Amino acid sequence: MRRPRIRWSVARGLRARLAVAFLLVAAVSALTTAALTFQEARKAILQRSQDTAINALRSQVNSLAPDLPFPPSASDLQHFAAQLDGGGQAQNWQAYASFQNGPLLPQRPANTSTAITPELRAAVTGKGVPVFQRVMKNGQPWLAIGMPVSYAGTGRAQSGLAVYAELPLTAEQANTGALIKAAERGAVPALALALVPALLAAQGVLRPVRRLRKAAGDIAAGRLDTRLDVRGGDELAELSRTFNHMAATLEENMIELRRLEATARRFASDVSHELRTPLAAMTAVTDVLDEDAATLDPDTAAAVRLVSEETAKLARMVEDLMEVSRFDAGAAALHLDEVDAAETVRKSLQARGWQDQVEAQLPGGVRAVLDPRRIDVVVANLVGNALRHGGAPVRIRLATRAGRLLIEVADNGPGIPDEVLPHIFERFYKADAARARSEGSGLGLAIAEENVRLHGGELRAANRPEGGAVFTVDLPLRAQGGEEQ
């Protein structure tokens, strides 16, 4: 139940990321547009204020300067500045006059500052052209204007008279502040409106992604004939075409693999059945020869015993192949019976004469519903494997835990190499290929695992910290899926 929630959260996260990306683009676009608009509007507002103030000051100077005595006295300059103030009430400026780079008149009180900077005065007297400058005064923006007064006539010679004016830009600042607030108020609804196309765009992008995800899930579930409906020619459509090609190739390969697997299983089953009849005859003959081996000469007796041993190995291999074929065909069935688990294990050891080679801890009174024949196969394979490849002593222990039956087979050998451990239950897998002929068919552990799995249990292999390998059979006390006798 967890996997669908994870998929939904991934889809939801992608939708959210697409919506956020769309909103970010919209926000950046809106902010960039607002910033450019604000800059242009602010520039236009300030430029208009500057042009108006400079033109008004020039008009006042042109009107009043001809009546000014020359050279002007300090009182003449103060009267001239006062006249300029009277004419600039609309701009609310404070006017000053200066002759031959002298002090500004009227002079400001000692505890007050002026926006007319020395740099502005130097630019006016040095360049001889009107100059303006925006400065901060007492935390407020001000516009400072400097204008030289020249003689009329040829050459426009400088008279040495300069006029200055300072005026606050608080109104312009308020206008630009209003622009900022208007942009802020407009940004929120714009982003809210942008959310709708963002969600629609995300939905449009995610729709084929969801179809692709569902199709991939169908493929994973084994429905290899799943295909996507391809529309359009964008990247997602190309991805859908690639998916369809992959699914078609996978379906073809899977069909071929299943055909080859079925052929291989049928071949193994047919060969095993065909070998049973000649093997039965060979086994009967070798049994007779074994009985008379003592009367034969040593070389002939050794050959007879070798043939007998190899025939027995071949018979066991054929039986293993037939058992594996039954598992592959789904024909293996449990025949359950309620038995004493300890007695079942003990009989398996006694049937093979291992009771003196194995240290057994088999507490009585453990009742379990099992298939005794299949548990006998499991125990025989695990104990036989430990005796052949492990070190003495080999121990088998029976225990119960939380309604489960545990059978542990441990040895004191070198253990299982780490690179072998993941493959230990694979069919025909042998850790040492050089010893393949003497190590059996390579099917014993695979058959043991299949028998345990048939009971609804699990077979695990590990290495003990103190050395040696340990195989653990973990079974329910009441196996499911079989026929109880």
UniProtKB/TrEMBL annotation:
<keyword id="KW-0902">Two-component regulatory system</keyword>
<dbReference type="InterPro" id="IPR004358">
    <property type="entry name" value="Sig_transdc_His_kin-like_C"/>
</dbReference>
<keyword id="KW-0843">Virulence</keyword>
<keyword id="KW-0418">Kinase</keyword>
<dbReference type="Pfam" id="PF00672">
    <property type="entry name" value="HAMP"/>
</dbReference>
<keyword id="KW-0597">Phosphoprotein</keyword>
<feature type="domain" description="Histidine kinase">
    <location>
        <begin position="270"/>
        <end position="479"/>
    </location>
</feature>
<keyword id="KW-0812">Transmembrane</keyword>
<dbReference type="InterPro" id="IPR036097">
    <property type="entry name" value="HisK_dim/P_sf"/>
</dbReference>
<keyword id="KW-0378">Hydrolase</keyword>
<keyword id="KW-0904">Protein phosphatase</keyword>
<dbReference type="GO" id="GO:0016301">
    <property type="term" value="F:kinase activity"/>
</dbReference>
<dbReference type="Pfam" id="PF00512">
    <property type="entry name" value="HisKA"/>
</dbReference>
<dbReference type="InterPro" id="IPR005467">
    <property type="entry name" value="His_kinase_dom"/>
</dbReference>
<feature type="domain" description="HAMP">
    <location>
        <begin position="203"/>
        <end position="255"/>
    </location>
</feature>
<keyword id="KW-0808">Transferase</keyword>
<keyword id="KW-0472">Membrane</keyword>
<protein>
    <recommendedName>
        <fullName>Signal transduction histidine-protein kinase/phosphatase MprB</fullName>
        <ecNumber>2.7.13.3</ecNumber>
    </recommendedName>
</protein>
<dbReference type="InterPro" id="IPR050980">
    <property type="entry name" value="2C_sensor_his_kinase"/>
</dbReference>
<keyword id="KW-0460">Magnesium</keyword>
<keyword id="KW-1133">Transmembrane helix</keyword>
<keyword id="KW-0547">Nucleotide-binding</keyword>
<keyword id="KW-1003">Cell membrane</keyword>
<keyword id="KW-0464">Manganese</keyword>
<dbReference type="InterPro" id="IPR003594">
    <property type="entry name" value="HATPase_dom"/>
</dbReference>
<dbReference type="Pfam" id="PF02518">
    <property type="entry name" value="HATPase_c"/>
</dbReference>
<dbReference type="InterPro" id="IPR036890">
    <property type="entry name" value="HATPase_C_sf"/>
</dbReference>
<dbReference type="InterPro" id="IPR003660">
    <property type="entry name" value="HAMP_dom"/>
</dbReference>
<keyword id="KW-0346">Stress response</keyword>
<dbReference type="InterPro" id="IPR003661">
    <property type="entry name" value="HisK_dim/P_dom"/>
</dbReference>
<keyword id="KW-0067">ATP-binding</keyword>
